[in-house]
Amino acid sequence: MIEIAASILTADFAAIGEAVKRLEDVGADMLHIDVMDGCFVPPITFGAQLVEAIKKRTRLRLDVHLLIVNPEKHVDDFINAGADILTVHAEASADLKMLLRRIRGAGIRAAASVNPPTPVDALIGALGEMDMALVMSVNPGWGGQRYLPEATKKIKTLRSEAVRLGIPLDIEVDGGINVETIKIAAGAGANIIVVGSALFNAPDMRSAVRRLKEAAN
Ligand code: DX5
Ligand code: ZN
Question: Does the reported pTM lie above 0.90?
Fold first, then answer.
């Protein structure tokens, strides 16, 4: 069963609370929160304080995507803020396996991600330490970009490797998802789908969620 992780990156930042309530009402399965530090990616977005504030206002799980350098220094803040899933980038982690063990050790789901230029091998070696692998299907930093087809092969490789190893791995795809590209990503083996602009730019967000799920299943 496909789950929709609704990204708040294209929401009105001055009305995040309303956006969170709306996403819950229209049937999103979890909230995707892009934490950007202005170093790993050019924009600066949210910190642990916003994650903590959102946690108090929603029943949705918080899928926190750390697009930051030195994640080792910051994971505890996001764990304490109430993240349910915490994703770090392989490109930014000094010791990815150790960091994933630390996140899991805190009792929450651990995930690792790679950007489009990074080979999927960077995740394969650490599959045993993660609950989810996140495949970036856009170059990170902004919502509203086009899905990069090279992500599809990475999803297929991860899914077949997880099956071969008998690992119940969630595979999340992030960037450029709409009713067309969700079919491609879900068909390749992704089961958690990040959607941002395709929800916030939709005339009717509830039917957008329904149509995306119908297209994926
Ligand atoms: C981009 C972020 C994505 C983004 C997706 O760096 O990681 O989560 O919000 O937005 P859309 O669905 O608009 O591509
Ligand atoms: Zn993201």
Answer: yes
CA neighbours within 13 Å on the CB side: how many for 46?
25
180 to each of 79, 86, 212, how far by Cα in Å?
34, 28, 9
Phi, psi of 117 (to 5 degrees): -75, -15
Q: Supply the residues annotated as catalytic.
A: 34, 174
Q: Which helix (H) or strand (E) holds 81?
A: helix 75-81
Which one of 63, 174, 180, 201 would you pick to mutate in the ligand 1 pocket, going by the greatest count of ligand atoms within 8 A of its CB? 174
pLDDT tens profile 34-88: 999 999 999 999 999 999 999 999 999 999 999 999 999 999 999 999 999 999 9
CB 89 within 8 A of CB 115: yes
**Is there an atom of ligand 1 within 6 Å of 194 CB?**
yes
Q: How far, in Å, CA of 88 to CA of 10, rounded?
A: 21
Query: Distance from first CA to last CA of the chain, Å, rounded?
Result: 7
- Residue 176 Cβ < 6 Å to ligand 1: yes
Residue 180 near residue 126, CB atoms below 8 Å: no
